[in-house]
Amino acid sequence: MTASDRWVASTCGLCYGTCSIRGHVKDDVLVKIEGNPESEIGRGRLCGKGVSGIMTLYDPNRVNAPLKRTNPLKGKGVDPGWQEISWAEALDEVAGRLKKVHDDDPRKLFIQRTTTNTSIRAPMMMFGAAFGTPNSWAAGGGLHCGNGAHLIGGIYHASWSLVPDFQHCKYAIYFGASKGHGAGHVACTNMQQAADARIRGMKLVVVDPMSNFASAKATEWVPIRPGTDAAMGLAMVNVILNDLGVWDAEYLATKTNAPYLIGPDRCYVRDADTKKPLVWDTGRGRAVPYDDADAAGLALEGEYDAGGVRARPAFARLREHVRQFTPEWAEGLSTVPAAAIRRIAREFATEAMVGSTIVIDGQRLPYRPVAAIYFRGAQGHKNSVHNCYTLELLNQIVGAADVVGGALGFNPVCYGHPETGKPWYEPKPGPDGLMVTGTWVAPHLPYPIPDPKHPESMSLGGLFPLGMFGTTMASRDQEELWTQFKLPYRPEIMLNYGANSLLSVGNSDTVAETLTRIPFVVSFEITLTEFSEFADIVLPDTSYLESLDSRPNVPFIFNHPAGQGQWSWPIRQPVVAPEGQRRQCADVLLELVDRIGIREEFNAIANTHLKLDGPHRLDFKTPYTYAEVCDRELKSHFGAERGLEWFREHGVISWPKRVEEVYWRPFLKVRVPIYWEFLVGLNAKAKTIANARGLTWDDAWYDPLPRWLPCPSHEVRDARYDLWGFYYRDTLHTNSFTNENPWLDEAARLDPYSYTIAVNAATGRRKGLRDGQEVWLESPHNRRVRGRVRLTETVHPDCVGVGGCAGHWAKTLPIARGKGIMFNDLLEVDWDHGSPVNLNLDTCVKLRIVA
Amino acid sequence: MATTGRVVSVKFLGFLQRLAGHREASVEVAADATLADLLDALARSYGPAFASAIFRTPGDVHTHLRVFVNEEEAQVTDRIVTGGEAAQVAVLVVPGFEGGSR
Amino acid sequence: MVIDLKRCIGCYGCQLSCKAEHGTPPGVFFARVIKREFGTFPNTQLVFLPTLCFHCTNAPCVDVCPTGASHYREGGVVDITREECVGCLACTQACPYGARYFNDAPGAYFPGQGLTPYEQAKYSDDNVGIVMKCNFCIDRVTAGLEPACVANCASRARTFGDLDDPGSEVSHLIRLRGGEQLQPELGTHPNVYYLPPA
Q1: Residue A130: which of A621, A494, A587, A604 has the closest Cα?
Q2: Can you give the residue range of the structural domain that contains B46?
Q3: Regarding beta strands C31-38 and C101-103, do their DSSP bridges make them parallel or antiparallel, or are they unpaired?
Q4: Residue B82 in domain
């Protein structure tokens, strides 16, 4: 290795999977990207996107200087009339305006960022918190993937999401998930583990309207109508609990709130003195607090006199509640045959081997080799909370949660590097003994849930404490709702990092309208996109291959492989030097911090958020570069001798995982809720506030037990709209970002599905459609998009599938322009299409095909 | 609040400054006061908007709240120990994320 | 080489790592992934079929090459001597697997915007007007590395080794899982075997 021929270890930034890479640089030109075999994150192998980053780096359409718009008129396709300006001029203007807003009302700053390049998360969120704005979101991401699946992942697994224990699972059911099949969290390691599991003989049942990625590799594909996952799941829970009589009594009694006594008011019966929920101790024949150390044999069934009321264990209520959800009922909604639902439920319950144990690393542990995994498909709907809650119950009733073979959260327990004991976190019991995550990613913890309050944020989040982000950040009716809720301010400045919300949220006309109402928009970009058309100032960002970061993986809760193996903490560092006047956003933010006068806040937050320790803490009053902050974070975790210098040379630090980190559930005294008692009180409080503001309220969404609730697409009565449209994540592309990469675009053009409308072949023939024919997809709200038909056997006859988030129109993206379909243009973004419990936007639409 | 207490200097960082109406204040607390006692006093002085920013439910401090004593992060159950020096307490709400800690 | 269709998930890692390794121009792929549907709804099987030059023992492309540019190397790799290829396209027509590409013009990935620094470093004028194809990354293999598509495959679907050695991993996999050549009836005897998808 010489200066003119070198390999540089860093981290991919083409999706949030952030696999570890190394770049081969010859004569200062990046000539190859490979996986870094020294890291657990990717284990030396990359997907098609990862190896193609060279073409993103060297895109001649990159922004190289700060730009200022000269055309005050903003709109889709309107040329902003960009004028190059100096960094000094750009930052004078940006800092001046930010300071004014900060001194007036910091809530008027609206921060938006992409989910593609996640390493900006820490600096941007620290900036936002220091500034004092609650208005921050990851554009599109929160509405589409996060509010339900991540909430449930957090409540039950203290984790962002879950995967089957690929090393030991024997039977996994995926509901609209593709973990291990090309995209998503820690994509490349999961691909290896999933392939090994297939060869080992793990059965995989994939419930999905389309047979594309995971379903193509499945033992069985179960086609389903979109948004009906909870119906199938409830019927399965019913079959398992009531027909088969299978459950893991020990797990339920000790690791969940199944034994908590529920009174006629649907709430916990509480101890008069301690206010702790009561359980029925069958040993002593009386009610005792749930954490009574002497309690033996907590009742899961029956009815008891406790605290003066007739009460039943939560489990008994659940069991009775699900009796109404028969497989025949579920078939009517989901189209999944009742016999198949019964069979799959039986297979799941049988393979769970309730009661069995296995010895791993000398420790006898519960062995439950089944997993129910849910993600974007089950989540991308108005009814996401109840979908994901229901599907998670499959894991809970058989005790297959974070035990050998079961559904694993990724890495909610970490006891740190053996030499330093850091990073360190573990879930702990919170109010009523229910689990609180040890570390977390989102704006609020999944549990405990704060009291609802009169909303003061753009998303109305305070009133809907289960939601991460809300539709009103970019909805058609945002002004109406803000007025209704007397929001005391309006956004005045938007700071955007790389998000193209024109494409990523919902229909672009609505998003465009909300953007034009924001007086001043600043955007950090590597290329000019459809979003940039609405910016006043564009700042040229470095690409991931030109950037530095001490936590490129948003470690670890977000993006580290589950199961046994190693921990790896990699860094990101510039593989090549940035060209032109590009500057890394994090450095620019630190300069803005000083210019606005919020250094004390920022440094305090950095100390607490990055866990900066001892001599590596930031003084509140000293300015630091981003590299210095990164150096201090690494030293805080791995010792003074392992700072940035060490990591620049080594790229990554790894150490073995311990069995109690991987299969942590039996080791920690935490419970999770199979019965959502807290929703009862939450409903009453939130409803009072909402009704006072004239918002109609439906209590059904706050039911403490799971149910199937219809989405707008299920309630379209106009028979002309006869198909359900959905979009899915293509392995070749990350949302709208990679469409401009010509290698990926070329591959996508050759792929039969990437840029086409997947229509079931028989359905298409019935409608007289030809393969390759150009058609319109039209929604009942008169929105339409155009694309080419692909007649296929891989999609449900009632459905139309569209890949990715393409359909760019910006002239500044010559490769991406005109390719593929912008499905999101069919989506309504308004109150009716969002969830009244977690604000999740429905991403499924009833539509018709018009030739 | 005990009148035989002592005075600590409190700095309101971030948006708490807006809710408090100023950046710094001197607050008298009991000699053996904890930070939770101090927060209670602040909530009483500055009203419901301030209180709901620092308490998740009445009496239960919000998970977003961070308290620093002389720039060191502290737990709300900690006594305000200063080693004889005047304590500089800084309070801050981090409305963006959670972090794990021992 | 052995390609395990049960492991492959069609992520295009091979196709694109090959492109990155060799700097092939637009429209030229030494490795490709083809997606094919079998059966009818709901009994559908979508198969991901990664392809490359099969380095046939009886390679029609070598037989028809008028200049001897296409030839067998020691070890069985079918290669093209760049200097001897006259671009007559006899081989591209003879290959039943579509593994050969004629590079007719110096294409750019950003049309009308010049060549990127990467393309400037990787493209060679010597490749224009001749036929290009996979050579099993002979330079990497000589240096003790695996071919780029094998080294990068995240689901470890590709295994490279000596088919003549019955003790090799490739021979073992073919025996264990029932590896088959694509279209063996053509008599070309491909040296790439596929393991069944299910």
Answers
A1: A604
A2: 6-93
A3: unpaired
A4: yes
Asked if A549 and A93 touch (Cβ cutoff 8 Å), the reply is no
Residues near A145 by beta carbon (within 8 Å), at least 6 away in sequence: A115, A375, A376, A379, A380
* Stretch among A424-428, B10-14, C67-71, C165-169 having the lowest mean pLDDT: B10-14
Into how many domains does chain C fold?
1
Q: Which domain holds residue A830?
A: 712-850
Specify the 3-state DSSP secondary structure of C49: strand
Beta carbons within 8 Å of C160's beta carbon, 6+ residues apart: C1, C136, C141, C146, C147, C150, C170
Instruction: Please state the separation of Cα A730 from the chain's center in Å.
Output: 16
In whole angstroms, what is the distance from residue A212 CA to residue A99 CA?
50
Chain segment A639-654, per-residue pLDDT in tens: 999 999 999 999 999 9
Strands of the sheet containing A29-35, edge to edge, are A5-11, A20-26, A29-35
Using CA coordinates, name the residue in chain C closest to A35.
Answer: C152
Q: Give CA–CA dist C108/A240, Å, rounded.
A: 59
d(CA C14, CA C158): 9
From CA C103, how far away is CA B30, in angstroms rounded? 84
For chain A, how many structural domains are there in total?
Answer: 3
The answer to whether A181 contacts chain C (CB < 8 Å) is yes
Q: How far apart are CA A776 and CA A448, in angstroms?
A: 46
Nearest to A433 by CA among A605, A601, A260, A680: A260
3 state SS of B49: helix
- Return the DSSP state at A789: E
The per-residue pLDDT for A143 is 56
Record: contact A192-C20, CB cut-off 8 A: no
CA–CA gap between residue A553 and residue A571 (Å, rounded)? 8
Sheet with A109-113, edge to edge strand ranges: A83-84, A67-68, A537-540, A520-525, A493-497, A109-113, A136-138
Cα distance between residue A636 and residue C187, in whole Å: 65
Kindly list the distances between the CA atom of residue A43 and the CA atoms of A320, A648, A686, in Å, as whole numbers in the listed order: 47, 19, 47
The overall average pLDDT reported for chain A is 95
CA distance readout (Å), C187 to A562, C52, C190, C194? 47, 18, 8, 16
CA angle A813, A814, A820 (to 5 degrees): 85
Scan for tokens 């073409």, then name that residue.
Answer: A55
Asked if A106 and B18 come within 8 Å (Cβ–Cβ), the reply is yes
**Cβ of B99 and A611 within 8 Å?**
yes
Q: Prior bond to A72 cis, omega within 30?
A: no
**Dihedral sign, Cα of residue C18, residue A213, residue A180, residue C47:** negative
CA proximity to A374, closest of A671, A139, A164: A164
Per the structure, the complete domain to which residue C49 belongs is given by 2-195
- Measured CA to CA, the distance from residue A289 to residue A446 in angstroms comes to 24
Same domain? For A332 and A390 the reply is yes
A188 contacts chain C (CB < 8 A): yes
Can you say whether the dihedral through the CA atoms of C82, C87, C90, C94 is positive or negative? positive
Among candidate residues B17, B22, B15, B33, the one with its CA nearest the CA of residue B87: B33
Task: Count the Cβ atoms, other than its own, within 10 Å of residue A277.
Answer: 26
Cβ distance C9 to A216 less than 8 Å, yes or no, reads yes
With bands split at pLDDT 50, 70 and 90, how would you rate the model's confidence at A74? very high
pLDDT band at B63 (very low <50, low <70, confident <90, very high): confident
CB contact under 8 Å between A223 and C41, yes or no, is yes
In a domain, B72, yes or no: yes
- Clarify whether residues A677 and A749 are in a common domain: no
Does B49 fall in a domain? yes
Q: Determine, yes or no, domain membership for B101.
A: no
Which band of pLDDT confidence, cut at 50, 70 and 90, is reported for residue B85?
A: low
Going by C-alpha positions, the residue among A509, A600, A216, C170 that lies closest to residue B13 is: A600
Q: Which of C20, C44, C155 sits opposite A51 (nearest CB)?
A: C20
